[in-house]
Amino acid sequence: MIGDLYADEELERLDRDALRALQLLRLKKTVEAALLTPFYSKRLKGVGITSAEDIRTLDDVRKIPYTTKDDLREAYPYGLLSVDRSEIVRMHASSGTTGTPTVIYHTQKDLDQWTNMTVRSLRATGCTKEDVFQNMMTYGLFTGGIGLHYGAERLGMLVIPASSGNTTRQFNMMKDFQTTTVHATPSYMLHLYSRMEEMGYSLKDFNLKRALIGAEPHSEEVRQKIEELFDIDAYNSYGLSEMNGPSVAFECTQKKGMHLWEDAYLVETIDRSSLEPVEEGEMGELVLTILIRTGTPILRYRTKDLAAIIPEPCSCGRTSRRITRIKGRTDDMLIINGVNVFPSQIEEVIMKMPGIGTNYLIKVRKEGTLDKLTIHTEVGAELFTDNAQDLHNLRRRIVEELSASITIKAAVELHEPGFLPVQQGKAIRVVDERGSVF
Length: 438
Ligand code: ADP
Ligand code: ZN
Fold this sequence. Notes:
Layout: H1 8-12, H2 16-34, H3 38-46, H4 69-74, E1 88-93, E2 103-107, H5 108-124, E3 132-135, H6 143-155, E4 158-160, H7 167-176, E5 181-184, H8 186-196, E6 210-214, H9 220-230, E7 233-238, E8 249-251, E9 258-260, E10 265-270, E11 283-290, E12 301-310, E13 322-323, E14 328-329, E15 334-336, E16 339-341, H10 343-351, E17 356-367, E18 370-379, H11 381-386, H12 388-406, E19 410-415, E20 430-432
Parallel strand pairs: 3-4, 3-5, 5-6, 6-7, 17-20, 18-19
Antiparallel strand pairs: 1-2, 7-8, 8-9, 9-13, 10-11, 11-12, 12-13, 12-14, 15-16, 17-18
Helix pairs in contact: 5-6, 8-9, 9-10, 10-12
The structure holds adenosine-5'-diphosphate (ADP) and zinc ion.
Adenosine-5'-diphosphate is lined by residues 94-98, 142, 214-217, 236-241, 303, 305, 326, 329.
């Protein structure tokens, strides 16, 4: 395969024509593998694709029907294997945020290619072999933990496979081993900070330089808050198990969107209703095809994640286009008395308030025929104990800002630090008592 002729550093900086040529070759190879799976052989033959030769240009990808999470469930457990099961060396599953998990299988070669991508992603954030890497994402079927582990080792970092939870132990290790880089959900980073003082630690006990944050939607305000609280750089990391896991897209040190590694993924953005492509630069649902995995090939996967492709080249020189921060999942969107709101829009408003704490929860219920939205948010310790008038003003400001920026009327309740529940994995930000609970 032509990609094997390039060193990974070259792949990151291939000119766009060479990148597209490589994408086409890899797409053909992926279609060839897909035709060997029970699921896709039927699906592709149904639209007249019987061999990789039916894909002549990259635009021909549009002949292929979309794949949804339900399709993957239908193919459960082995309907998407393109190789003999004896060639498979590992499986992962999605964390099941929205239902039954889906399973992905990897050959050794698939894992090697994925590791290349994670090495590249870590390097893009400035990580080197001098770094001590404390991986606070859950190890197991979920790809967050193991996903970056092997890349970090290959880069030569000292890897601490801490996994998630046990905040006391995380702090002890951060101090004892002088951890420079952590990988965690943004909500866990905020939680860590909120527990630091009470556990007898202060920033000067640590040697932290950067945090890689991902696995859940978060706003620019949350990133900045994490950076300010810990005095570090925080980089956004996007991935999903269907597309391997972490390292689909990663921020470089410019911090202006995430490079979606296009030699490994074909990216499209589509309108959620018409399912037609949106213009480059416009927000749409990300549709991804993985080009570096044959164990479980997945073509045109509808991620339900909303983002826009950033067409302008990045000043770092990497040639893969970037995507914006994920605005949310389509199924996270709340409809409040007819107004569409993403939790991330509410988060933006809350998190820029001075004196605000590190955790919040959005609750929705019916009051008569109307939807009633209540935002519960913690405030910083000083503000909570000091001054009732300041609290009152803060509450009023949040209500006003929400109404001005997203035209929704919400009740706001302020709580002391530590009041709201904290999850081990992905944060639960919304409790919708009108029917379903996310
Ligand atoms: P599940 O679909 O069960 O949550 P995964 O564990 O594979 O399965 O999670 C992938 C999803 O997590 C993505 O589709 C996306 O919605 C969310 N996600 C991952 N990284 C980010 C990120 N950096 N920003 C926003 N959302 C993210
Ligand atoms: Zn860049």
